[in-house]
Specification:
- The complex is a heterodimer of chains A (217) and B (464).
- Helix content of chain A is 28%, strand content 16%.
- The longest helix of chain A has 11 residues.
- A seven-stranded mixed β-sheet of chain A has the order 4-3-2-1-5-6-7.
- Chain A contains eight helices and seven strands; from the N terminus they run E-H-H-E-H-E-H-E-H-E-E-E-H-H-H.
- Chain A has 217 residues and is an alpha/beta fold.
- Chain B has 464 residues and is of the alpha/beta class.
- Chain B has three domains: 156 residues, Aconitase, domain 3, CATH 3.30.499; 97 residues, Aconitase, Domain 2 (3-Layer(aba) Sandwich), CATH 3.40.1060; 169 residues, Aconitase, domain 3, CATH 3.30.499.10.
- Chain B is globular and about 55 Å long.
- In chain B, 59% of the residues are buried.
- The chains are: A alpha/beta (217), B alpha/beta (464).
- The structure holds iron/sulfur cluster.
Chain lengths: 217, 464
């Protein structure tokens, strides 16, 4: 599946997933199932007309007391200093609910590059992929394994080889390695690795589309 | 070749399929609204493109509009900018807009069907997850994100992978007081909020066949709450009679031809479904939700489950949900005091819903402490209600009939439920904060909502 887009004018933006050996980062654990898009970004913050700035309201009502930015809730993981990194790990059925792409924009704007879960809601998964946010589906067992890790563990996601690895401090005596492969369509993988999107592809087949329309005219 | 209803429509709309990749699906109708379109318009402009097929797009303003004094300028500035941006974008791109004040304005999923834009056998998308509603006509209809809105703007196509096929058969007569909303809440309580993820769901069986068009829309509307890509019901005489004569429905020769095509839209006898679920209509009670996703529901006279019947990984969300809702595991919900009643949203704001409620409350009074909002799904529904004198019945009962819009369904516009208050709602989502930060939502049918409005606490429509 090489070169599905034969357009010379597409600029190959260097994608974060081209890093040799995979993309490594600490992770933020959100051990909760069915996290819906109304939690990721509540409707009252959807009033923007651009894609920027949604990150500050990410998980707004879980992050702050009484909707007050000066009162972060210490119990919520984004407010816990020991957790950092650009990978969010969440329970099953992440991103269910509304089709709002603002959820993906908020995650990206906040600084996440990868979301890991054992299951993603359909529309969210598409929205994520369309914004360069990589949804990695792992088994329930692997997910629980990640949740058992301490905050100094890193995850290494290798999009090219479609693997995700739990990387503990190699020096630590009890260090173990866990690795799993994940699925992604080769089309989407190519898009992410090369930094182009569906519109680029669809525009490249506009003739076919017009031909198709004639059938029904 | 044996095909499911979904496959018949899908195959007809495939422009081409990428090897080991998605298919290019042609989109017949694209509905847009103020919240999920501005970034897509901006994207098109930035790429130096023009809207490819503006005549296949219809726009309305619904999510972010007030439901009183719609003739006045929108008070909240950001909402006003969003609605104004839509007006400007539609004007610049030759897109038909049924904006505030227009006789066809309303919730996008209510106006599509009532104008005859929604027809059997077509593909429909909208930047809104409840686009699944339109599947009630035997169409492939699904919600998309803003990047996808931009794709359809640019090419009238989307890249999609074919979903798996599920059929849910509901058979038998419904019990007294049970509406189509109860059917779908029941299914959700059985298969959970992720039970149909990755599937196109076809609803079939005698119970579904006997539903009116509007009741079928309520069922398909909540397909997305099971995670389904879309929901469909094979079109039949009920469908054809509903579509006939609608503003954008085919007329004359075109109608005859359309009807011939539409009659082919059913799953072949030997079509293969990846999953099939059978439900006995007699098992369905008037339903209510107790938690913070639509799968957390039960019969209105049942008790909230105890924690120990759940799987280990379900427990944290369950505990969190009950804490948020201020409810106790093992307790009944019947009799729970409520503060608000919201009858509206694309799930239950059509004229039949309003008629049912009016019939039920005629000559009765709402409980004193309860605030009741009835929000029609469209200008046409509002006008129809007034023409039938339903507005007078509501007034006498102390119910407020407001103007069309999404209203308290999503806590975005001015209509919000205050923190900590209980609202029995005919909408489709009971997520934390969905109806306003801290608001506690109990999803139910319009009849159950009306019965509870009269009593002031959660009540069965069958209790007198
Ligand atoms: S009524 Fe509610 S669910 Fe329906 S389109 Fe509006 S916000 Fe979405």
């Amino acid at each position: 599946m090489e070169n599905i887009i034969n357009q010379p004018d597409i600029i190959n933006v260097k994608s974060p997933f081209q890093t040799w050996g995979g993309y490594a980062s600490f992770f933020v654990p959100l051990n909760m199932e069915n996290v819906d898009t109304d939690q990721i970004i509540p409707a009252r913050f959807l009033k923007g007309t651009t894609r920027d700035g949604f990150g500050k309201n990410l998980f707004r009502d879980w992050r702050y007391d009484n909707n007050d930015e000066t009162k972060p809730k210490p119990s919520f993981v984004l407010n816990q200093l020991q957790y950092s990194g650009s990978i969010l790990v969440a329970g099953k059925n992440f991103g269910c609910g509304s089709s709002r792409e603002h959820a993906a924009w908020a995650l990206v704007d906040y600084g996440f590059t990868i979301v890991v879960s054992s299951f993603f809601a359909d529309i969210f998964k598409n929205n994520a992929l369309n914004n360069g946010l990589l949804p990695v589906v792992v088994s329930e067992t692997f997910l629980q394994k990640i949740f058992e890790q301490k905050s100094d563990t890193q995850l290494i996601v290798d999009l090219k080889n479609q693997t995700i690895k739990i990387f503990q401090d190699a020096e630590a005596p009890s260090s173990e390695e866990f690795e799993e492969t994940f699925e992604i369509s080769s089309y989407k993988k190519e898009c992410l690795l090369n930094g182009y999107d569906d519109i680029d592809y669809l525009l490249s087949i506009k003739n076919d589309i017009e031909q198709f329309e004639k059938q029904f005219a | 070749m044996k095909q499911t209803l979904f496959e018949k429509i899908w195959n007809k709309h495939i422009v081409k399929t990428i090897d080991d990749g998605p298919s290019v699906l042609y989109i017949d109708k694209h509905l847009i609204h103020e919240v999920t379109s501005p970034q897509a318009f901006a994207g098109i402009k930035k790429r130096g493109l023009k809207i490819f097929r503006p005549q296949q797009i219809v726009a309305t303003a619904d999510h972010n509009v007030p439901t009183i004094n719609q003739h006045l300028p929108i008070k909240e500035n950001l909402s006003k900018i969003q609605v104004d941006t839509l007006i400007k974008n539609c004007a610049e791109n030759d897109i038909e807009l049924y904006g505030l004040g227009h006789p066809y304005q309303g919730i996008v999923h209510v106006i599509g069907p009532e104008l005859g834009i929604t027809q059997p056998g077509i593909t429909i998308v909208c930047g809104d997850s409840h686009t699944s509603t339109h599947g009630a006509f035997g169409a492939i209809a699904f919600g998309i994100g803003t990047s996808e809105v931009e794709m359809v703007f640019a090419t009238q196509c989307l890249l999609q992978t074919k979903p798996k096929q599920m059929r849910i058969n509901v058979n038998g007569a419904l019990k007294k007081g049970v509406l189509s909303k109860d059917i779908v809440l029941y299914i959700l309580s059985k298969i959970s909020a992720s039970g149909a993820t990755g599937f196109a769901v076809e609803y079939a069986g005698s119970t579904i066949r006997n539903l009116s068009m509007e009741a079928r829309m309520t069922v398909c509307n909540m397909s997305i709450e099971m995670g389904a890509r879309c929901g469909l019901i094979a079109p039949d005489e009920t469908t054809f009679n509903y579509v006939k004569g609608k503003k954008f429905a085919p007329k004359g020769e075109a109608w005859i031809k359309a009807l011939k095509d539409w009659k082919q839209l059913f799953s072949d006898d030997d079509a293969v479904f990846d999953e099939e679920i059978n439900i006995n209509a007699a098992d369905i009670m008037p339903m209510i939700t107790y938690g913070t996703n639509p799968g957390m529901g039960m019969g209105i006279d049942e008790c909230i489950p105890l924690e120990n019947v759940l799987n280990e990984n379900e427990k944290p969300a369950f505990v969190k949900a009950l804490k948020y809702m201020g409810l106790q595991a093992g307790n009944a919900i019947m009799g729970q005091k409520i503060d608000y009643v919201f009858i509206g949203s694309c799930t239950n704001s059509r004229i039949e819903d309003l008629r049912l409620v009016a019939n039920f409350v005629k000559g009765k009074q709402k409980a004193k402490e309860v605030e009741v909002w009835i929000v029609p799904g469209s200008k046409q529904v509002e006008q129809q209600a007034i023409a039938e004198g339903i507005d007078k019945i509501f007034e006498a009962a102390g119910f407020q009939l407001r103007q069309p819009g999404c209203s308290a369904c999503l806590g975005m516009n001015e209509d919000k439920i205050p923190a900590g208050k209980y609202c029995i709602s005919t909408s489709n989502r009971n997520f934390e904060g969905r109806q306003g930060a801290g608001a506690r939502t109990l999803l139910a049918s319009p009849l159950t909502a009306a019965a509870s409005a009269i009593k002031g606490y959660v009540a069965s429509p069958n209790a007198t």
